[in-house]
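queue> pop job 88
queue> type: inverse folding (structure -> sequence)
queue> payload:
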């Protein structure tokens, strides 16, 4: 079996905005691995992760999205756009989960996402989103069909009971990832600059933490690569990472000035500068 020894990289995670956004710094990587890993993480994070979204709505007295609703400031097209901005989180691992949410409002004023009635298995992450505005004491009733899915599904491709009269299909953005970028820089190991430093910047819609997105994306990639790894018996148990080179560098950094057999004059100068190890010299 062909054996390789690659330095094991370290991962630094800097989270912000309540864990919705994070920077992931991975270094040192072998030259070229930064672009390879960054591209895979970005593609899988943006297009392949599951999420929850509205798939169709039904408003009492409305037959199509080009209608208007008596007593409502917005027309149906605007209401659909507002519904598409709804951020939902399913509190179940069932990928086939579906539910129907309801709005029943009779008083004038804005209708917020927090006014939506729903079951305990779904959470509304942006409760202050305005869905519609009533300009009179008109009764407004609306059903919202919800499902789990992946990626982006346009209204014309929605399947199910939405073909019934009165249902208006909605474009569904299931992906919880708002933005994912990466960039690669040179990384130093000792005096060797022939390594990559990968930085991944990721922001979610708030329905999931950025750290969870990267972990799930990596798991999806791993599961696919495992199919290739298992073509050779025993390959799965072979560890390509070694600590020896990294540990050697760290050991050098921690070497005491007293152990370097310097001249008394040099040693005294370093001691007066409070330099005790080689790391102190490089920092």
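queue> result:
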């Amino acid at each position: 079996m062909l054996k390789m020894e690659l330095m094991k990289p370290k991962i630094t995670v800097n989270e912000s905005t309540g864990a919705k956004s994070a920077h992931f710094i991975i270094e040192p990587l072998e030259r070229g691995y930064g672009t390879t890993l960054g591209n895979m993480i970005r593609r899988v994070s943006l297009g392949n992760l599951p999420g929850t979204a509205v798939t169709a709505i039904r408003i009492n007295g409305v037959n199509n999205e080009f209608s208007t609703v008596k007593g409502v400031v917005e027309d149906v097209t605007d209401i659909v756009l507002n519904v598409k901005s709804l951020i939902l989180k399913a509190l179940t691992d069932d990928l086939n989960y579906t539910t129907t949410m309801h709005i029943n409002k009779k008083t004038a004023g804005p209708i917020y996402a927090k006014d939506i009635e729903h079951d305990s298995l779904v959470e509304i992450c942006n409760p202050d989103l305005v869905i519609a505005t009533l300009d009179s004491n008109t009764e407004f009733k609306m059903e919202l069909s919800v499902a789990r899915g992946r990626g982006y599904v346009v209204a014309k491709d929605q399947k199910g009971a939405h073909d019934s009269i009165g249902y208006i299909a909605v474009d569904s953005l299931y992906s919880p990832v708002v933005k994912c970028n990466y960039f690669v820089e040179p990384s130093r190991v000792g005096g060797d600059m022939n390594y990559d430093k990968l930085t991944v910047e990721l922001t979610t819609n708030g329905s999931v933490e950025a750290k969870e997105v990267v972990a799930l994306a990596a798991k999806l990639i791993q599961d696919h690569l495992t199919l290739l790894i298992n073509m050779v018996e025993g390959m799965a148990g072979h560890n390509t990472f070694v600590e020896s080179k990294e540990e050697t560098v760290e050991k050098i950094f921690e070497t005491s000035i007293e152990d370097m057999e310097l001249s008394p004059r040099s040693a005294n100068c370093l001691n007066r500068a409070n330099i005790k190890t080689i790391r102190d010299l490089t920092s």
